[in-house]
């Protein structure tokens, strides 16, 4: 039931008025250990806000973020991240991390790669001994395919893919259990995207880390995610194991997004769906089902009744009044192609 609302003040000729922007509204989901959950949706749907609230980079307005840690040194097995503050939050921080979108602006050009990767260990006070820090940095750098020569250089000497590997090494150096990858491959060429996705998968196998993989490109999300959540104007509309979501979606918005991805087998493609209009402004989100202004299947009650978030099949959740009636299964059922 995580919600994040921001007050937005509009200045007018005479005075001003303040409205609440419901960036994230009553979102519930679970990420298991060693699993990747993909989070997709159009720009402004609230994906980044979910990730940042989970990391406690911003405070949730209401709801809970519960973290079941496996670390042997943890004081308790379940931590209520939304209640942490001060020293407790600082001590907990190394268990969670973030990989940003732009590898060009997220690395300090005045620091060597060694110092960039070591920074989370130093800033959190996790390690103080230089030899110990160097050993940890060399270990994570090698896993991210960076050698000793790379560690001595500055960021400007590297390509986009190499810079993102430095960012991943920095995110994983404190051995976090949970990492948010916020559009982490979106700024890269397609071939480099594949390289980074493979690296993340290998690191997950080696270290057992869980990822929240935020992206707007569904085909990249399909490659890396065990499960996928779809967001629309601050709400989750569907959440399911990747194959189920890509093979037989139950929400018209997911169906519309998937219909825009061409597959090599023309018989496996959904008939293309063109949505009306633009994504609504979250400040003036539509009543009832927020998708009703663009949904090709909308009926009268859709504009008044908020659809219930419910499990429509095993591990398959959606919020549409008529989910059980829709059959959006792919015309040619070749799941391996997806
Ligand atoms: Fe479309 Fe109505 Fe379902 Fe919303 S509840 S997705 S408007 S059919």
From TrEMBL:
SMART domains: AAA (SM00382). GO terms for biological process: peptide transport; transmembrane transport. It comes from the Bacteria. It is a peripheral membrane protein. SUPFAM superfamilies: P-loop containing nucleoside triphosphate hydrolases (SSF52540). Residues 1-258 form the ABC transporter domain. It is found in: Cell inner membrane. Pfam families: ABC_tran (PF00005), oligo_HPY (PF08352). Keywords: ATP-binding, Nucleotide-binding, Transport. GO terms for molecular function: ATP binding; ATP hydrolysis activity. Its main location: membrane. GO terms for cellular component: plasma membrane. The keyword ATP-binding applies. The keyword Nucleotidyltransferase does not apply. Belongs to the ABC transporter superfamily. This is ABC transporter ATP-binding protein. It comes from Meridianimarinicoccus aquatilis.
